């Protein structure tokens, strides 16, 4: 599946500046001797709920998620946006360390128990996530609740049961699914020794992901050249950031 978009970055940015100039001029009734900056745009009353965007990258192991996340982060940062790069599982917390030893096959846990730990690992970051977004920081997140449900339901757990502990977490503004067949991903090599990095299991995960697509999803063909993926990603991410900057309310999982 390929993603096509007519909305260009330059159009989006231009619109932001023109809108800010127009509303400032009319409310202050004076000529601006300067080009309004993004800060001025955010202080405008109409944009009081302006915020950063929650951008999530999802896909099978070896689909290129992690390198695209870091390229995207670097680009946004260089452009002067307030942005942070996050990932789940966040292995730095106590819960994250339990998850990490499970994935390394050093700890053995019931499938339900590890599912709840992955979820708890997101809940322990939820408040910080909301604070960052409300303060105008965009978060580029490598895996989120969709990984949680796709991987656990691929083991045979009920999908609705898997979704339940995720209810109330912040819903992403955009989920980018980097689409690759399990066979092609495996051909790329570089599967580590972690628990889920096996072709037969990844096939089941791919099927689970298919059931999770919702209106926040965009699909990019992960077999395209890296630069092409990067360009498509930037375009849809900037589009989503523009909408959030204009004051899109935060919402919660799961969207209908
Ligand atoms: N994973 C990741 C889950 O099973 N549930 C989750 O909620 C999340 C976030 O953990 F195999 C799986 C997916 C992957 C593994 O992720 C570690 P990384 O991105 O390969 O570190
Ligand atoms: Mg991995």
UniProtKB/TrEMBL annotation:
Enzyme class: transferase
InterPro entries linked to this entry: P-loop_NTPase, Thymidylate_kin-like_dom, Thymidylate_kin_CS, Thymidylate_kinase
Biological processes per GO annotation: dTDP biosynthetic process; dTTP biosynthetic process; dUDP biosynthetic process
EC annotation from Swiss-Prot or TrEMBL: 2.7.4.9
Domain of life assignment: Eukaryota
CDD domains tied to this protein: TMPK
Pathway the protein contributes to: Pyrimidine metabolism; dTTP biosynthesis
Transferase as UniProt keyword: yes
Domain Thymidylate kinase-like per the UniProt entry, residue ranges: 57-232
UniProt-recorded Gene Ontology molecular function terms: ATP binding; dTMP kinase activity; nucleoside diphosphate kinase activity
Pfam families according to UniProt: Thymidylate_kin
Keyword tags: ATP-binding, Kinase, Nucleotide biosynthesis, Nucleotide-binding, Transferase
One Gene Ontology cellular component annotation held by this UniProt entry: cytoplasm
Family: Belongs to the thymidylate kinase family.
Protein name (database record): Thymidylate kinase
